[in-house]
Amino acid sequence: MTAVITAFASSPDRGRGLARDMRVRWALEETGVPYEVRLLSFADMKMPEHRARHPFGQIPTYEEGDVTLFESGAIVLHLARRHKGLLPDDAAAQARAIAWLFAALNTVEPPIVDREVATLLEQGESWYARRLPALEARIGTRLDDLSAALGDAEWLDGAFSAGDLMMVSVLLRLLGSGILGGYPRLSAYVARGEARPAYRRAFAAQLEVFTAAQEAGQA
Ligand code: GTB
């Protein structure tokens, strides 16, 4: 059955693949699940029809048969559990891959988002320049530990998994900050993720949405 996901009709990231539909598209491509995309404006997201799918009026959402889901992590985990390609068969290895997925969302992404929000919304504040080093230090602590955990391995725990998909997606949010450049192992890890054919297909698909919106004068 074809799944339906939601994404920005005109993404504020201008097709850089930073909105959270990208990780869901990537998981769909890795697992080979066919999908369609329902594009939403900011106004559409807040309408009752979409809030019935997503209580917070956001993207992404996922619908397939009788399953309707919100939260990118829940969607990626759902896909990984139901289809081959994103979780190992061994139960203990599967549990560790899921732990990495949660680590990406709960341990690594929050300080990255804190910095992003400050940079977007607080640059004009008198205290911004004094706060930024502390925000970046918190990211640095996480990246130091993540880099040590990865070591010289290709992926975080054996074969590529949903944990890597989510961790690479989270680290990609640092592009443009210059921070990742200080972490050669993590930079190479992100590049390995971006080189995966499934990632490239997902990236191209979301970029096409932005390009079409731009051509139509809507971006
Ligand atoms: N925890 C939820 C999840 O993981 O699914 C978070 C969902 C979320 O934050 N959705 C955002 C949204 O719908 C889009 S991805 N925002 C609209 C709203 O809240 O009204 C976040 C995002 C947006 C823009 C960029 N960017 O421009 O770079 C990057 C990430």
Level of helix content?
55-70%
Oligomeric description of these chains:
single chain
DSSP, total strands:
4
Each distinct ligand:
S-(P-nitrobenzyl)glutathione
Class from helix and strand fractions? alpha+beta
CATH topology of the largest domain: Glutathione S-transferase Yfyf (Class Pi), Chain A, domain 2
Overall pLDDT, averaged?
97
Helix-strand sequence: EHEHHEEHHHHHH
Counting DSSP H or I runs of 4 or more residues, the number of helices is 9
Strand order of the largest sheet: 2-1-3-4
Largest sheet data: 4 strands, mixed
Percentage of β-strand residues: 5-15%
Shape: globular
Identify the CATH architecture of the largest domain: Up-down Bundle
End-to-end separation in angstroms reads: 32 Å
User: Uncertain runs with pLDDT below 50, 5 residues or more?
Assistant: none
Radius of gyration: 18 Å
- The CATH class of the largest domain is identified as Mainly Alpha
Essential attributes:
alpha+beta, Glutathione S-transferase Yfyf (Class Pi), Chain A, domain 2, 4 strands, 2 domains, four-stranded mixed sheet, binds S-(P-nitrobenzyl)glutathione, Glutaredoxin, 219 residues, globular
Describe this structure in words.
The structure is a single chain. By secondary structure, the chain is of the alpha+beta class. The protein folds into two domains: 3-85 and 198-215, Glutaredoxin (3-Layer(aba) Sandwich); 91-196, Up-down Bundle (Glutathione S-transferase Yfyf (Class Pi), Chain A, domain 2), CATH 1.20.1050. Helix content is 57%, strand content 9%. It has helices spanning 21-31, 42-45, 48-51, 72-82, 91-121, 128-150, 162-171, 184-194, 197-215; strands at 3-8, 35-40, 61-64, 67-70. A four-stranded mixed β-sheet has the order 2-1-3-4. α1 (21-31) runs parallel beside α4 (72-82). The longest helix is centred in the middle third of the chain and has 31 residues, at 91-121. The radius of gyration is 18 Å and the shape is globular. The model has no long low-confidence stretch (mean pLDDT 97). Bound molecules: S-(P-nitrobenzyl)glutathione. S-(P-nitrobenzyl)glutathione binds next to α2 and α4.
